[in-house]
Amino acid sequence: MNKAESERLESLFQHLGYQPTAIAGEADLIVLNSCVVRQHAEDRIVNKINALRALKRSSRPPILAVTGCLVDSDTARLKQRFPHIDHFFKPGEYPGWLAKDEPFPMLPQQPSPSTYVPIIQGCNNFCSYCVVPYRRGREKSRPVSEIVSEVKELAQHGVKEVVLLGQNVDSYGHDLPDKPDLAHLLYELNDINGIARIRFLTNHPKDMGDRLIEAIAKLDKVCQQINLPVQAGDDEILKVMGRGYTVESYRQLVARIRSQVPAIALSTDIIVGFPSENQEQFQATVDLLRELRFDSVHIAAYSPRPDTIAARNLEDNVPPSVKKERLDTIERLQEKIATEINSRLLGKTVEVLVEGRRKGRWHGRSRSGKLVFFSENDELLGEIVKVKIEKTSPWALQGGMYR
Ligand code: SAH
Ligand code: SF4
Q: In angstroms, what is the span from residue 168 Cα to ligand 2's centroid?
């Protein structure tokens, strides 16, 4: 979401006459887009903000602004803590001091072949560990017509793939007058000429319905890839997290998805070391991962966040060394599983949307979201090509273009 918002902010600034520079000392305006989902992310952004102090004392000081989830409602306190920052504005909001009448959110000016499109802001769920609802506010969906015309415009600029974004895309539309849902939006977007692929994230297991699964199965442009964060494999922990589903209902949901969309690539998010998580409860998570075999797993160690229910009521009592051990255990297991899953693609040909070039090799993603590298001299940015897989690893695939 931050990436999407940064792209659009960049576009707004260019529209206002700014040009990007890689040298901080040359900038007239510096905007930091912050993430505070875990303490580590917050520490990094705070260091960056502090590092800007010196620039503010230079002979040509830039305007400094901070946005993203560090910005809470108490801007006065932020001002006091970081007096060298000129402006704070909330994530997804308009940098109001610059120009009030510009259309926002603006489209990225040179959109990538695969472009993020926010469809719903904020979150109503208040999972006990999560700071997002406090910083991004309540759910607010963009109207279907607005998203459709934006995606049409992106297609005219050569965009081939859109990634629809929301903290919980499954609750898309409930706050709009005619209550469209994500499935409805997918049917509309599937008809847009020029768009070849549609992805969306993140899904919430308690809200993902059969209409959506059916849409994924039916619509040719919707990719067979779902991020479905489970967070933990133990019912007691899930309950205290406030996730609103059980391990069994999650398992059944995965079974329904896999029976209707056999080629689906599933990924998930896990938090280890949630308050009071014991060895047995952790083992249940490991067992679930071994049973369900995800294509990829994003693992995080629990980090208490200000204002959240867990930080207010629960002691962060799993020692850092135990969190680290649990993190490593899952990483090792997942590496093994991903190695096995990816090795099945050896010798197969996959469709790749070429997104860029790194060290002389093109890279892009397959329809199931796998990162694929291949060498080829032709200019291929934004092309959809076939690649025959010659080498696999848990993280990426390599091959040669197949003509
Ligand atoms: N809306 C998404 C997640 C948004 S935050 C969902 O419902 O899953 C992205 C990920 O960060 C989460 O899935 C979770 O695994 C992790 N995360 C969020 N808060 C955290 C915290 N306090 N400590 C550790 N990880 C956290
Ligand atoms: Fe955070 Fe839960 Fe909302 Fe995801 S669904 S953003 S984890 S509160």
A: 7
Residue from 36, 167, 230 to probe ligand 2 pocket by mutation (most atoms less than 8 Å from CB):
167
Ligand 2 atom, smallest distance to 202 CA? 4
Angle formed by the axes of helices 320-343 and 279-292, to 10°? Answer: 10
**d(CA 89, ligand 2 centre) in Å:** 21
Instruction: Concatenate the DSSP letters of all residues of 12-42 into one string.
Output: HHHHTT----S-GGG-SEEEEEE--SSHHHH
Integer Cα distance of 18 and 24 in angstroms: 14
Atom of ligand 1 nearest to the CA of 229: 8
Q: Which residue owns the Cα nearest ligand 1 atom 4? A: 167
pLDDT digits (tens, 9 = 90+) for 199-253: 999 999 999 999 999 999 999 999 999 999 999 999 999 999 999 999 999 999 9
Sign of CA dihedral 119, 122, 124, 126: positive
What are the structural domains, with CATH classification, of the chain? Answer: 2-88 (no CATH), 114-343 (3.80.30.20), 349-401 (2.40.50.140)
Please state the pTM of the whole predicted model: 0.96
